[in-house]
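Running low. Invent one:
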Amino acid sequence: MITLWAAERRTVDTAEFGELIESMADAHAAPLAAELVDIVAHISTEILRTPILRTAPQFVALGYWMRAAAIRRIVAEGRAAVPDGNVLAPRGLALHLPPANVDTIFVYSWVLSLLAGNSNVVRLPAKVSPPTEALLAIIVDALAGGRISSKNLFCTYPYGGEVEQRISPLFDLRIIWGGDEKVALVNKVPIRPDGLSIGFPDRQSVALISLEAYDRSTAEERDELAGRLFNDAYWFDQMGCSSPRLLAWIGTAVNRETLARDLYSRLQSVIERKGYEVAPSVAVAKLLVTNELLAEGAGHRGEWYSSELQVVHTAEPAAALKRGPGGGFFLECTLGDLRDVRLLVSRKLQTITHFGFDIDQLMELARGVAGIGAYRIVPVGQALDFNPTWDGVPLLSHMTRQIVVKAN
């Protein structure tokens, strides 16, 4: 069944769906147009005033990211990136395939593609949460009646088979969010011969904490850090690619264990204050992974703070990093120097969050891992902040084309 999300939700068959998408192929707006900025800003305002959304941190973060001032900065940067004499053009018709476990990511890529002037088809999961339903209603209402309403389609259809084979060759751009298997499976179905398919597969992320900086921090600063770490790890049950699974303590302080337990105790207090709970199945999975790591020798100490927070110290962080079940399961390790972080980095590593390091140290770290992995280095608390350059890919420039113009 193919469901179209509109003012009045309806279902269509494969033939009608294909014809509908074909009719969108040449329907584009001018890239970075003021009217597009206004639409995004209006959606932002509605998100931040809707009760079911303004109490959920991931939707509040989305609303702030879409504020008029923030979008105008993205537009200004997009225009500045176009060489003099070139004309910016839409790439064409874009297909967005978001994951099921992060219920706001489809909006980020859709907004950028909308700003690029593209027509957009967004495939939604078969089941969406009530907040996501409210978000979709805001988006559909913002587009209704406008001249670009027919250029943006939110829908649900089954992966693979007749539907995907029918529509994929129509797309100039495809954005795939999900695991390695999903990206590989989707890429088996070709889009237009001159189309661009961008995959965002499985990634892991880590947090770096300076022992020296934490040791000299005040109680208020430590509480603030614990709150920011909670936001990074727990918004999506630690299953977002940007959510840290490993905490690496950097330095040689003799009181490392005392400092680490201090942070975890403060994090546990945040968990209790926020009322976060994991499903019993997740709690059991965390215990099983803890025991497996200890039995294999990959972990040599496990600490249980609650069903929502478990920590396993490992001497094999790169290998153990692949094992996290989420839901508040942290691996931890100690590294003597920031340069040792390179030992953790692979193509699978996406985000490094940090506490207690200055810009010169972070730039040196970035140069040391360039070409290996780690595509974002941001402060603790900003792991889930979306940036138009994601996984090292400047999305807006990939979502547009440039026409080269010369007079002589």
User: Anything to note?
Assistant: The mean pLDDT is 93. The chain is about 40% helix and 25% strand. The domain at 2-202+391-404 is CATH 3.40.605.10 (Aldehyde Dehydrogenase; Chain A, domain 1).
